[in-house]
Amino acid sequence: MAMIIDGKKISQQIKEELKEKVTAQKAEGKEGALAVIQVGADPASSVYVRNKKNACAFVGIESLAYELPEETPEEELLSLIAELNSNEKVKGILVQLPLPGHINEDKVIQAISPSKDVDGFHPQSVGAMVIGEKGFLPCTPAGIIQLLKRSGIEIAGKNCVVVGRSNIVGKPMALLMLREHATVTITHSRTQNLAGICRQADILIVAMGKPRFIGAEYVKEGAVVIDVGIHRNAENKLCGDVKFEEVEPIASAITPVPGGVGPMTIAMLMDNCVQSIEEG
Ligand code: NDP
C-alpha cells in the first residue's frame, strides 16, 4: 500500500504560510497585484484563471483580470503587457496558455519583464534556473519538489526518471531534480525501451499527456510515482497519465489525480507572487 501524497493538503499548508507572509508584507508597506490575462474563452483556461484569482483572494494578493476576445491582435496583447511591465503596482504578469493560433506564444512570453515573470517561462528565468541563480521557478515542477520534500521523500542520490521533455514541465522538472542532487534521466516519445528505463526509477515523474499510459510494467517495487497528467475520461471524470489502481499497490508513494500535482501549481504561483512583492 502506497502513501497517497495529498497535494490538496500540502498546497493548503503553503497557501496558509503565504497568507501570513502577505499580512507581514502589508504591515511593512509592501503590496502588489497579479495581472492575469486570458485571451479567448477556452473553458479549461477559464477554470484555471478562476482558481488563480481565488488563490490570490485567499492569500491576500490583489488580482487584476484582463479578459480579451479570441480575435485580439498580437500587437494589442503585446502593448497591454508593455503597459503592465511599467505599472509599479503590478508585481506579477500571467498570460494563460494556450493562446489562439494567430498569436506567437514565445513572443508573448518574452515580452513579459523577467522581474514580473511569475510563471517562470521567460528565457531569462529559465537560464537562471539552469545555472542555479535566483529567479522565478516554473510552478508545476517547483510544486512537485515541494510535494516530495514535504512528504519526507529523500531526493539526493536517487535515480529519477522524467517522462516528457516539454518546456513547461519535463525539462525544468529534470533540472530541478538535478539541483536536488538526484541522478536524472529524461525520456520522450523517441525513447527506446521506455518501460525498462522507468523501472530503474526510484522516483518516476510522468508528464507525457497520455491518459492512463503508465501501468505496473513501468514501475519498480517501492518507487515514488508522481503523475502530472490531467485528462477528462469518457465519463467526464479526471484521470492522469498513470493507471493509479494498478500502480498504487507497487509504489511506496503516489500522487492521485485529481488532488496531487494540480493544486500545487497554483500554490507555487502564489509563492512566486509573494517573492516578487518582497523584492519590490
Ligand atoms: P506536452 O504535450 O507538451 O509534452 C508531452 C511530452 O511527453 C513530450 O515531451 C513527449 O515527447 C512526451 N511523450 C509523449 N508521448 C510519449 C510516449 N509514448 N513515450 C514517451 N514520451 C512521450 O505536455 P506538457 O508537458 O505540457 O503536459 C504533460 C501533461 O501534464 C498533460 O496531461 C498536461 O495536461 C499536464 N499538466 C498538468 C499540470 C498541472 O498543474 N498538474 C500543469 C501542466 C501540464 P516528444 O517531446 O518527443 O514529443
Short note summarizing the structure:
The protein is an alpha/beta fold.
Task: List the topology elements.
Layout: E1 3-4, H1 7-27, E2 33-39, H2 43-59, E3 62-68, H3 74-85, E4 90-95, H4 105-111, H5 123-131, H6 139-150, E5 159-163, H7 170-179, E6 183-187, H8 194-198, E7 203-206, E8 224-227, E9 231-232, E10 238-239, H9 244-247, E11 253-254, H10 262-279
Parallel strand pairs: 1-11, 2-3, 2-4, 5-6, 5-7, 7-8, 8-11
Antiparallel strand pairs: 9-10
Helix pairs in contact: 1-10, 2-10, 6-7, 6-10
The structure holds NADPH dihydro-nicotinamide-adenine-dinucleotide phosphate.
NADPH dihydro-nicotinamide-adenine-dinucleotide phosphate binds next to helix 10.
What attributes characterize this protein structure?
280 residues, three-stranded parallel sheet, 16% strand, binds NADPH dihydro-nicotinamide-adenine-dinucleotide phosphate
